[in-house]
Write a structure and sequence with these properties.
The chain has 501 residues and is an alpha/beta fold. 45% of the residues lie in helices and 12% in strands. Strands 2-10-9-8-5-3-4 form a 7-stranded mixed sheet, with helices on both faces. Strands 1-12-13-11 form a 4-stranded mixed sheet. A hairpin with an 8-residue loop joins strand 12 (427-431) and strand 13. The radius of gyration is 26 Å and the shape is globular. The structure holds pyridoxal-5'-phosphate. Pyridoxal-5'-phosphate binds next to helix 8. Pyridoxal-5'-phosphate is lined by residues 110-111, 163-165, 168, 190, 237, 241, 266, 268-269, 289, 298.
Length: 501
């Protein structure tokens, strides 16, 4: 029977092609052929690459047969040994599991994005206790770096333990009491999640609808507030990741305040990618995620609350329905005075966020926004040169989230395109959600993923795959348009420098 290596070469046509797909030296593949097995650590990737034609278990079994793993300190009849004949083995996984080594991907979807190497290094430092004085000092720095990123002086600004959804829930659970009327503006997936949150907090949502891909219409919000003068809170998504549209947060907050309502703003995709000015815009409560334009690991949700919100929550009758998210209790850990145990903080992730925010501080927030815009211009030039069109009108687009119409003639093959980008180029882009599923691709340019080499890889890879499936693309046009866009940006910047010198 052919070995897994031989079957892989047969699928790909040659050893060189296998080596290319795995980003390996050809000699390595040649060694596998000679040895008659592929080392176990490649099992999962081989299954993915061969689209399941070679199962990871086959690779593992073959490797185990050819080169059995010996546990020197434990004989086979040891009751703890996985191969031992003991009742404990009933619970052992059916396949042999080796350490997990994720492949190196280029992440250009809607998030998560690539993590900056400095953040990865920092996260692998030794753990320390969450009440260790050294950690407490780091927390203070982290809070001040977050205030800078949010452009706020809000004392209660900290990273909640959990993904963006925890930040979202944190706001609603604390600010919405049973019976409270909340106006939620929905123009995509995440506005819908806000409605869910209001309902689960036993509030009464009033929904202001806008089409997917459109901004939240300030006039509709004004009308809704006039009709519902008892509304206590207005909630909206600043950067709707499902469509790539950016709403005018400043105007929406102004309208809410005119009607004496507090505001909850979702900045999961906007923070770090486009201006978010909490104090200048008067935002009352805001949440974000660590895994997008902040280039950090998923699992932390930076939040910020004005003093008005803190007073409002403190004055609420009765207990807040969630123990974990009760702002009054968490103040004891993240507040300004002495720290007490609330929950076990994810220390190493917090080291990582500290480093990620430090990177933004070093780059300068405005330069960080400008970088996102610069690479968006190049990506846009390239995509348009391929004949692809944006979902969102130009002046409402998020540079970090590019939603592109999939031409009708290739919509049936859209999943195949993404699969090939992943398998052949290690490149991940996102699919459409809800009514836009199968109709758009979402190409993210967020945080550390927002780099010129990613822009060029994306254009070349997409061009190549589109060409393969029969969509007419002039190879090289997109890359050349992107280079021209970069050149224009640089020449404008040089002229500007001359004028101000
Ligand atoms: C706008 C928006 N809000 C909320 C969330 C939820 O964040 P998480 O997936 O980190 O829980 C996301 C995630 O993509 C998002 O894009």
């Amino acid at each position: 029977m052919a070995s897994c290596a031989e079957r892989l070469v047969e699928i790909f046509g040659s050893q060189a092609e296998v080596a290319r797909a795995l980003r390996l030296d050809r000699a390595v593949v040649n060694n596998w052929m000679k040895a008659g097995y592929i080392p176990a650590r490649w099992a999962m990737q081989i299954e993915t690459l061969s689209e399941g034609r070679i199962q990871s278990q086959e690779v593992l079994h073959e490797a185990q047969r050819a080169k059995p793993v010996r546990v020197k300190s434990r004989p086979d009849d040891d009751p703890l040994s996985l191969t031992g004949d003991s009742s404990m083995t009933d619970f052992a996984p059916a396949k042999r599991i080796s350490s997990f080594h994720p492949p190196q991907r280029t992440l250009m979807g809607p998030g998560p994005t690539e993590i900056h190497p400095r953040v990865l290094t920092t996260m692998s430092q030794p753990a320390i206790g969450y009440l260790d004085p050294v950690f407490v000092d780091m927390m203070e720095e982290l809070k001040s770096l977050l205030r800078y990123t949010y452009q706020t002086k809000n004392a209660l600004t900290f990273p909640a333990s959990g993904p963006g959804s925890v930040g979202m829930e944190y706001c609603f659970v604390n600010m919405v009491a049973p019976g409270d009327k909340v106006i939620v503006c929905r123009n995509g997936v995440f506005g819908g999640r806000m409605i869910e949150n209001v309902e689960r907090a036993r509030g009464v949502p009033v929904v202001v609808e806008d089409a997917w891909g459109e901004q939240v219409d300030p006039q509709k919000l004004e009308d809704a507030l006039k009709k519902n003068p008892d509304a206590r809170v207005v909630a909206f998504v600043h950067a709707e990741t499902s469509t790539g549209v950016q709403s005018d947060a400043k105007t929406l907050v102004e309208i809410a305040h005119k009607h004496d309502a507090l505001t909850i703003v979702d900045a999961v995709t906007s923070l770090g990618g486009v201006p978010v000015r909490v104090d200048e815009w008067g935002i009352d409560a805001i949440y974000s995620g660590s895994q997008k334009c902040l280039s950090c690991t998923p699992g932390l949700s930076p939040v910020s609350f004005s003093d008005r919100v803190v007073d409002y929550v403190k004055a609420r009758d009765g207990k807040i329905q969630s123990w974990f998210m009760d702002m009054n209790l968490l103040l004891g850990y993240w507040g300004a005075s002495t720290r007490t145990y609330h929950h076990t903080a994810p220390t190493n992730s917090l080291f990582g966020l500290h480093e990620a925010l430090l990177l933004i501080r070093e780059e300068g927030l405005e330069n960080c926004w400008a970088r996102h815009h610069r690479h968006y211009l190049a990506l846009k030039a390239g995509l348009e040169a391929m004949g692809l069109q944006y979902l969102v009108r130009e002046d409402a687009r998020l540079p970090q989230m590019n939603a592109i119409h999939i031409p009708e003639s290739i919509q049936a093959k859209e999943a195949d395109v993404r699969k090939r980008l992943l398998a052949d180029f290690n490149l991940e882009i996102g699919a459409g959600l809800g009514p836009l599923a199968g109709k758009i691709w979402r190409i993210g340019l967020m945080g550390y993923s927002c780099r010129p080499e990613n822009v060029m890889l994306c254009l070349s890879a997409l061009g190549s795959v589109l060409d393969d499936i029969g969509y007419p693309v002039h190879v090289g046009d997109a890359e050349s348009a992107a280079h021209q866009a970069y050149a224009q940006v640089h020449s404008r910047a040089a002229q500007q420098k001359l004028r101000t010198a």
